[in-house]
From TrEMBL:
Keyword Transmembrane: yes
Subcellular locations according to the entry: Membrane
Assigned protein family: Belongs to the clarin family.
Top-rank lineage group of the source organism: Eukaryota
Name of the protein in its database record: CLRN1 protein
Chief localization: membrane
Membrane topology, from the record: Multi-pass membrane protein
GO cellular component, one term: membrane
Record field: transmembrane: 97-123, 135-155, 189-209
Keywords, sorted A to Z: Membrane, Transmembrane, Transmembrane helix
Any one GO BP annotation for this protein: sensory perception of sound
Amino acid sequence: MPAQQKKIIFCVAGVLSLACALGTAAAIGTQLWVKGTILCKTGALLVNATGQELQKFVGDIQYGLFRGQRVRQCGLGGRPLQFSFFPDLLKIIPASIHVSVILFCTVLIVFALVAAGFFMFNAFGSPYETLHGPVGLYLWSFIACSCGCLIMILFSSEVKIHHLSEKIANFKEGSFTFKTQSEQFADSFWIILVCSLVHFLNALLIRFAGFQFPFSKPKDSGTVTGAADLMY
């Protein structure tokens, strides 16, 4: 492939990696990871509410990695309550999983920035070491993609398996019991999915530029190749 086309491909991949880093950084600070509704089970049972009457006992909840908000409804109107995971909810959430999600988000941002830098370096400079060439680009993209997948797996398990929404809804509730009526992942969670797919796409772009995957055998085994063959 001509050098000019390779430069264009690397520029596109660099811009995508930079966009992923910025998008992940923005997602971490929002409370748009999970949205749902919570039912005040105790209040509904007290008045034997059915049908449309249940809507008076259905509140809302949304939260991210650091903070969130729930609207508590027990028949007397909504009462919003702001909360933060640190230190308010630290005793009731699976703290190790939650901290791991934040840690992998940070790693994802770092390696997305590293990948963006090296993509631009390969587009406008001349790689002088293997890790500055295609093998390095595969490595950075793979690490960033893996971190994105781990974030989604860990956070999904925290929400679904450990029933995070119900734990938050029942935090410091003495006489009332809340039950999760519905919950779905919101925009920030899907940004992580998009970022993972983008880094996988970047690996395909590197291959499309004409570079073999790392550790793959060359087509012509009789030709002696060196580190310079990995570069253009």
